[in-house]
Design goal:
Oligomer: heterodimer
Helix content of chain A: 40-55%
Low-confidence stretches of chain B: 94-105
Shape of chain A: globular
Helix content of chain B: 40-55%
Order of helices and strands of chain A: EHEHEHEHEH
Mean pLDDT of chain B: 83
Largest sheet of chain B: 8 strands, mixed
Low-confidence stretches of chain A: none
Strand order of the largest sheet of chain A: 2-1-3-4-5
Largest interface: A-B, 28 and 34 residues
Number of strands of chain A: 5
Order of helices and strands of chain B: HHHHEHEHEHEHEHHEHHEEHEEHEHEE
Amino acid sequence: MTGQRPILLVEDNELNRDMLTRRLKRAGLEVIAAEDGQQALDLMRSDSPSVVLMDMNLPIKDGWTACREARLDENINHIPIIALTAHAMEADRLAALEAGCDDYATKPVDFPGLLIKIGKLCK
Amino acid sequence: MLSVAELRNAYDQLIQDLPPEAIEDFSRLFEATRRLEGLIAPGVAGDQSHDIMNALAAIRGYGEMLQEDIGEQFEFLNDTFSRLLKAVDTASSNKVPVPSADDQPIIASEPGFILAVDDLQENRELVARYLSRTGHIVVTAASGEEALRTLDQTDVDVVLLDLIMPGMDGREVLKRIKEHPEWRATPVIVISGRQDMEGIIECIEAGADDYLFKPFNPVLLQARIKAGIERKRWHDREQQYRLQLERNEKFIRATFGRYLSDEIVTDILERPEGLELGGDLREVTIMMSDIRGFTSLSEKLAPDQVVKMLNRYLGAMTDIIMAHNGTIDEFIGDAILAVFGAPKKREDDADQAVQCALAMQAAMAEINKINLAEGLPEIATGVALHTGDVIAGNIGSERRSKYGFVGHPMNLTARIEEVTAGGETLISDSTLEKLQQNYQIGERRELNAKGIDQPVIVHQLLGLQS
């Protein structure tokens, strides 16, 4: 589904980072992970992932800022970004789309739905 | 959660039979539930909603993974897993981080990127707190200089600007923003004390969009921010729209510009409905030309010489045809097929075509001069003109189509062209009839072309009437 390129998971909460990494790997996907927005941008530049799953509330550089920066960098602005936001925070979702995310998934994540979104964006 | 206790029990009993992956998942699931219990324990201070949400998300993820992996093997656990997931879902939809009553947003607004500039830390924090509750993203700057740096790095929707600051003050920042080609559209709301009414007036004259007095009312602040964001969004959309229009125009010019004259492209751009070039029957004057003996000539030359010579010739001919408002239908090797009278009809299409043919023949002298200078052979072109009704329109499939022409007159023009000699221009009777000006006409010939019942009358075109 995604060819050779890994999926980049950006999540500061280690429980969730670990959980999603395991689930994605079990679904047959290669996963690399970052813990903050700056790391995410660095990995997007160095590893050119097929898609980025990004939590928005991140330390050092938050997801919205990272997303805006990614969209301004022509080397990585083609990489699709799926924002991971809290179920109740509609404003976060809107801000994520406003910042240039291609799609969003709410936490707790509907995993089959997430795989479909990844598949669509990886085409 | 009861289901968690049940799972712990089951886990202790089943541990021998579980695959290593499931053991790992179980231990992480329990770790997440311990984390959650810690977060919702009585007496925990502060807003824990974010961590709670993350713990719930982890529990759900591990729960689902375990159910998928061992639910079949240990069917009796399925029900427990389902209850756990249900509980998590209920908890996640209930655990809405509720702002306390004083901070509750009263004015809902599209979230924006706000830059708050104030030299006092407590002011910056206050503004950030009010506005992030409404979903805005707030970046702060402690000085005018820092504000300009932030503007340089980020796309800001609204600037909230304190007037009195040490170093570069608010007035200067405002001036710089309004002078900057990219920032000038960013709304600026100035903040000052009530006693500085004059400063406010001065700023509004200098381009500030709105103002607030300190200490400000949070609702008023939200309202002004909302108005500012809306203004910025309008501007952004307008900008986007304009860029789109420019791109479209560029695209049209690039696509049609190779085949149509500038005048016609401009005409199409001015009337967008003109782009839906449906097929229609229309009278046009068709021109066909080619270089006599070019194929055998090209066999004697190196490929790059052939291309060079051909491009020089076609380039010169294209310029002349476009200058006479002709539409180039296509190049086939050294042959040119052009049409006068489509997509735009003019009164003097036939005259334009005839004058175009004469200009093309006249240009050959100059082309041959360059050819000779480069050691290339001289070339001569034959031109045929014929006027008749053709169907003009977008022809092709959805993937590839072009504005083109079909009809009997197209074939007839090709037949006439076949009999032209080098340097000769032949025009059919029907073209001659359409001419409004007088030209020097030479020999009259009758042409019996194959596939054509009636002989065609053609005339040599010698030049303009002197």
